[in-house]
Specification:
Helix content: 55-70%
Strand content: under 5%
Largest sheet: 2 strands, antiparallel
Structural class: mainly alpha
Shape: globular
Number of strands: 2
Strand order of the largest sheet: 1-2
């Protein structure tokens, strides 16, 4: 029988930590004179108490090595449980907030999707705005640990190719997770602090700079204004573009850089590929807009910001790019399906998978030309095993099939074609905004029906955990093993 105590222990500790974190927005509300601080105190007490109780009840079942089923359950269970507790301040703070909306917002935050159902953000208490940003910041660092520890362990989506970079290779899961979390957290905090000071230096008010620093480094996209980055035109857009790109690079490279080794950061094929893709997209869209009559400075600034935002899955918007022409809209839609680098806060399919697919196609084409030759796909100069290639193929096929099924299900709830397809892509790839009048860059997800919101929230979870981690626990063989 599967022992769930290790899963409950870790989940309980994380829930308790989430409850303790609620004291920060409580303090912010007190500082700004908002009566809403009581809500965060109540939420913190409830959340921390339940988390500590669960951890204590399961503490006697904790071992040094987790079974594969326990790893799957813990990976999915944590990301399913935390949004429920993260939604508590939303539910208690506003009697008009419904469960589906509170859960959608919390799930969007922790998965760093950035899709929102909240409107009139300018009227929200400062503590609530900060809590939304904190959820994304926690989700960002959390997904890095998942990507570097658990996904290679579970052999999901080709992530096992990075197992040798997981701070010591194979070993006991929980100790290695703690080691990686500790190493990466330093780089994550430094990048966040640098982003904050950069925003502040270009004129963004301190509170807004702090919130946007949290959501920029998390590539999450929650803003403190309904108009997102439309409220911060000019230099803040350049700053955001730089830090969104930096947050989309593998954080293990930052740890190595802090240790005095710059070579891995410079020579990483993912990083080179990411910047090549970004440069080409920005050049094409910017050139198209200039030819359409937009000034060079505005075209460069808005294109750089919005293309990087969608490419990295951050989801900020500073302009309604749906007015830039059909060509740009189609290009931006597919840009969101690229993503950043593995081991970053970015999302979607990821650059390295496209690189492996291209290497595989090239090897197969060479094999057709020279039937008696042996051509092995290579990544970073090293031959890639069939196990990794098969994992990548399965992931890409599963992503496309899931995207299609989800689009059909959304259309069955009454949504139009554009909203269904773009909404499915925005949630599954954790991009944030979709296309169309409802969920486009100038709208949000509030008008959608409840069934669509639950479907999209589930898609955020599935997409953030690289699909197979969730799908595996839905099979009969998983529970029978």
């Amino acid at each position: 029988m599967l022992d769930l105590r290790p899963v409950g222990y870790v989940t309980g500790l994380l829930v308790a930590a989430l409850g303790a974190a609620m004291l920060l927005p409580m303090a912010v509300d007190i500082f700004f004179g908002n009566d809403h601080w009581v809500i965060f105190l109540e939420s913190a007490v409830v959340t921390a108490t339940l988390g500590i109780t669960t951890a204590l009840a399961c503490a006697n079942g904790v071992g040094e090595r987790l079974k594969i089923q326990q790893v799957f359950l813990m990976t999915t269970g944590v990301w399913l449980t935390l949004p429920f507790f993260g939604a508590v301040p939303f539910l208690l703070g506003d009697p008009d907030t419904r469960v589906v909306d509170a859960f959608f917002e919390a799930m969007s935050g922790l998965t760093t999707t950035g899709a929102t159902v909240f409107t009139d953000l300018e009227t929200f208490p400062e503590g609530v705005l900060l809590w939304r940003s904190m959820l994304q910041w926690f989700g960002g660092v959390g997904i890095i640990v998942v990507a570097m520890v658990f996904l290679p362990e579970l052999r999901i989506g080709g992530m096992q190719i990075f197992r040798s970079e997981s701070f010591g290779g194979e070993g006991k899961v929980l100790p290695r997770a703690a080691q990686i979390a500790s190493s990466i957290s330093g780089a994550y905090i430094i990048l966040t602090a640098a982003c904050y000071f950069a925003y502040f230096a270009v004129g963004m008010p301190s509170f807004h700079a702090f919130n946007h620093a949290l959501t920029t480094v998390a590539t999450g996209g929650f803003s403190t204004y309904d108009s997102s980055f439309g409220a911060f035109k000019g230099w803040p857009e350049y700053v955001a573009a730089i830090f969104m790109a930096l947050a989309s690079l593998p954080f293990v490279r930052y740890v190595q850089l802090m240790g005095g080794s710059a070579g891995p950061l410079v020579n990483d094929p993912q990083i080179r590929g990411f910047f090549v893709i970004a440069a080409v997209l920005v050049a094409v869209v910017c050139g198209f807009r200039v030819m359409e009559g937009t000034s060079l400075e505005v075209s460069l600034r808005e294109t750089l910001f919005n293309v990087i935002s969608i490419l990295t899955g951050t989801g900020y918007s500073s302009a309604d790019y749906q007015t830039w022409g059909a060509f740009v809209v189609v290009l931006i839609f597919f840009t969101g399906l690229v993503g950043g680098c593995a081991g970053s806060t970015s999302c979607s399919i990821k650059v390295f998978r496209y690189q492996l697919l291209i290497a595989t196609i090239r090897a197969r084409i060479h094999g057709i030309h020279t039937p008696h030759g042996v051509f092995t796909p290579r990544y970073d100069g090293r031959p890639v095993s069939d196990d990794v290639l098969n994992s990548v193929m399965v992931f890409v096929v599963a992503f496309v099939v899931t995207l299609g099924v989800l689009s059909v299900l959304l259309s069955m709830t009454g949504l139009d074609l554009i909203t269904s397809v773009s909404g499915a892509a925005a949630a599954l790839a954790n991009i944030g905004p979709g296309l169309g009048e409802l969920i486009g860059p100038s709208g949000n997800f509030a008008p959608l029906n409840d069934a669509a919101k639950w479907l999209l929230a589930a898609a955020m979870l599935v997409g953030r955990l690289e699909l197979m981690a969730v799908f595996a626990i839905l099979t009969f063989n998983f529970w029978r093993a």
